[in-house]
Amino acid sequence: MVRPLAEALRGGVLLFEPAPPSARTPAARIAERIAEIERLVAEVPRLDALDVPELIDENHEGRPFYRSADPREYARALAARTGLEVIVNKVVAHVETPALARWAEETARSGIRHVVLVGGSSRYIPYPGPSVVEADRLCRPYVQGAGGLLGNIAIPQREGEAHRMLAKTRSGAGFFTTQLVFDREAPTRMLVEYDRLCRQAAIIPAAVVLSFAPLADEQDAEFVQWLGADLPEAAEREILEGDEVSAGPRSIERAVAVWEAVRASTARAEVTVPIGVNVEQISLRHLGVAKALLTEFARVLPPSGGGPATSA
Q1: Rg of the chain taking only CA atoms, in angstroms
Q2: For 38, left (φ over 0), alpha (ψ -120 to 50), or beta?
Q3: 175 and 208 in contact (C-beta within 8 Å)?
Q4: pTM score, two decimals?
Q5: Of 53, 118, 209, 265, whose CA is between 20 and 30 Å from 66?
Q6: Do the Cβ atoms of 165 and 136 come closer than 8 Å?
Q7: What is the dihedral of CA 291, 293, 297, 298, to 10 degrees?
Q8: Are residues 107 and 72 in contact, defined by beta-carbon separation less than 8 angstroms?
Q9: How many beta carbons lie within 10 A of that of residue 128, not counting itself?
Q10: Which is it for strands 85-91 and 114-118: parallel, antiparallel or unpaired?
């Protein structure tokens, strides 16, 4: 039985973030992708929800070009076919406040209960839309009115990120998904600091879902860097140098090792922040590698009912 997202976030949540279709993707191809995700969900144990992104390019003035279609329609189709809860991401920087309020109302009315609000890519651009904190306060009544959860993005390597997370928690964020993680130091430091700030403020911390993605080739590495992820040179070398056929398995091994290291470090520090995993499919070409990473995390994360992780 699928557990509610609010329950899953309290202990070892496992999300899958499928690559979204573009506005130009033919309907028949979208239907094929949905069928592929449906088969994946049936074959991977204990998935809790699907996290549907919105991909945007920006020009030098910060004006958006939407690489993906409206994620809400895709999310609704995935929910209907898989039976899983869905989360829809929305970049708020480009949407003026009245339009964002309409978006939140329409989204809740359409049956999508969980959303992740995302800021712009640069702090130097005067975007027309609200800040993430302002967007949280605006959208929170619609999301909570639908019985859903509001999420934001956390960027582990960004200086002062824990303070931003505290402000977003106060404005209504119930969970965070991170930018892609390839090393343990930054997420561990962020989690320890966020936990400390929440204790000082007497605030219950939001769950933090660490995002991982398999890299199968140089093209994948270039794309994650375009997404803004911090891919250390040592990690890229470890994964991609050598036999390209085994790059995917090496990437999976490193992702699980990073997760285990973060979990062990935060446990030693007695961090109370609930943590989980989000696996991103960054390439349509490599759904199989993403499925393999999901399967491995399903094995090492605590089972759906809670308790210690199992080992094979």
Answers
A1: 18
A2: alpha
A3: yes
A4: 0.93
A5: 209
A6: no
A7: 20
A8: yes
A9: 14
A10: parallel
The pLDDT tens digits for 248-298 are 888 999 999 999 999 999 999 999 999 999 999 988 888 999 999 999 999
Domain 8-297 has CATH 3.20.20.220: yes
The secondary structure of residue 9, as a DSSP letter, is: T
* Sequence spans of domains, the chain: 8-297
pLDDT of amino acid 62? 67
Token pair listed for 197: 């700030």
Tally Cβ neighbours within 10 Å of residue 60.
Answer: 7
Helix pair 27-43, 287-300: axis angle to 10 deg: 30
3-state SS assignment for residue 162:
helix
- Residue 81: which pLDDT band, with cuts at 50, 70 and 90? very high
Return the exposure string of 175-197: e unless at least 16 CB atoms fall within 10 Å of the residue's CB, then b. Answer: bbbbbbbbbbebbbebbbbbbeb
Tokens matching residue 189: 């430091």
Between the alpha carbon of residue 42 and those of residues 36, 75, 123, 143, 300, the distances in Å are: 10, 17, 41, 28, 19
Residue 15's SS3 state is strand
What local confidence, expressed as pLDDT, does residue 300 receive? Answer: 94
The two tokens of residue 135 are 């967007």
